[in-house]
Amino acid sequence: MSSDNDGFSDFPWQEHLDDAWLVLDEHGRVRAWSKGAERLFGYRHDQACDQLIESLIVAADRCAEQHRFIAETLRDGVGTFETLRRREDGTLIYVDITARLVTPVADGEPVLLFSEKNVTSLKVDRDSKSLEARYRELLESTPDGIVIVNPTGHILIANGQAEHLFGYGPGEMRAAQVEILLPERYRGQHRGHRSHYFDQPRTRAMGVGLELYGLRKDGTEFPVEISLSPLRTEETPLVMSAIRDVSERKRFEKALQDKNLELERANRAKDNFLASMSHELRTPLNAVLGFADTLLMRLPGDLNDAQERQLQIVRSNANHLLSLINDLLNLAKIEAGRVELNPEPVDCQALLREIGASFQPLAESKGLVLQLEVPDVAVELITDRRALSQILINLVGNAIKFTDVGRIGLRLVTEACSSAPGAAASRRRVAFVVEDTGVGMGKDEQALLFEAFVQGHAARTLGGEGTGLGLHLSRKLAELLGGELACESTSGEGSSFVLGLWAD
């Protein structure tokens, strides 16, 4: 149906009225569109005519409502409504509609004459006062800034925290578009998000979503977190936003990030230093030890007693320094995650016999008995032999060092256990037990036993001999092997160390 012959396009009244006037047929198709409608909704007469009104200015969730308006007006002859309209630029406004059924002289077909008046400001003012009366006291008690917004994007109420947060005076934010609280670069995108939210309202928790910024009245920006909650009133859907200034937290996170980067750089520098020192320190020390051993073997010639004592001191100190260097390098590798394990079948009985044999002379030199107890049935583990051997050597060496009288026990025990982490069935646990009748430790010492660079009372009485790293490294290696290292000790009675590993 063309608007040129509809009998309405030439009506002189339409040129001079501020309100929007439009003529619809019974299906909701536009037959006439006044200048006021052009000004209010943004569509020209030629754009609007012959279009269904729901495709032009009806809000997405109001199509059913529009159909009901038309049906009621066709039935009753008149009608008054208040609803949301969508303008050409996508913004929403509230309008008050007076509708009348008329029969034009031109063709006698009944049409609907709609007069639509923009009442957004009145609606905002009315809803603001209603919310103020109901929720002001509650909103002022919350620590976050609270802003309640209607579908047109107008702020109906903002609590004192929100006003303070954005730098506005009391009541100054009311009736303003919510986009004034956003930096300019986000506003267009936000209008689309807002419209979509009202179409599909849902609760959104604080901190979920994109990184957001608020804009203060003075033009300064600040990072925020926002939660959204639909708020249904008798007349219209609303959204309540809780807004939190996270500037301080962001500064802390940035400082923490910078510190972590600094620590990473320091760790890399440390690792590079230790890697270079591995060669630079070990090579001359090994040379010193080699020359000292050569002299002590009297290969170049005889030594007097004083010379031999001095060479023994040289060798002892060089060995101590080499042990310290090795422990530091091993610790650095473990903490940097650069330890490469080589799992292989390990004969546990054979390994214990080797360790026992290597320490037998040292134990005998102190008058100690070194007892070895292994099961008759072969016990095999798939593990890293070097790491396992290092742990046991540290434990047996410490046991001999801190025992003056009695015995050193080295036992191998296997047991079925169903309490393994994540185990669906029973698993076999292999325990390496190193026990002594030495000085033992009190509860306070045991609490710090596996800490790095910590020496117990017994070690200190020996003049600080040792690095304080042996047990710390041993526990770290045990964890790498998927096991655990524990200790039980009584001061003056001795200690028992248990290394537990899973056999399958």
How does this structure look, described?
The chain has four domains: about 5-120, Beta-Lactamase, CATH 3.30.450; about 125-245, 2-Layer Sandwich (Beta-Lactamase); about 260-335, Helix Hairpins, CATH 1.10.287; about 345-500, Heat Shock Protein 90. Helix content is about 40%, strand content about 25%. It contains 14 helices and 17 strands. The chain has a five-stranded antiparallel sheet with strand order 2-1-5-4-3, with helices on both faces. A five-stranded antiparallel sheet has the order 7-6-10-9-8. The chain is rod-shaped, with a radius of gyration of 43 Å. Residues about 1-5 have low confidence and may be disordered.
Give the helix proportion (percent range).
40-55%
Number of helices: 14
Q: Tell the overall outline.
A: rod-shaped
Unreliable stretches covering 5 or more consecutive residues: 1-5
**CATH topology name of the largest domain:** Heat Shock Protein 90
Please state roughly what percent of the residues sit in beta strands, choosing from under 5%, 5-15%, 15-25%, 25-35%, 35-45% or over 45%: 15-25%
Taking the sheet with the most strands, its summary is: 5 strands, antiparallel
CATH architecture of the largest domain: 2-Layer Sandwich
CATH homologous superfamily heading of the largest domain: Histidine kinase-like ATPase, C-terminal domain
pLDDT averaged over residues:
86
Output the radius of gyration: 43 Å
Summed up, the domain count is 4
Give the strand tally.
Answer: 17
CATH class of the largest domain: Alpha Beta
Instruction: For the largest sheet, list the strands in their spatial order.
Output: 2-1-5-4-3
Structural class: alpha+beta
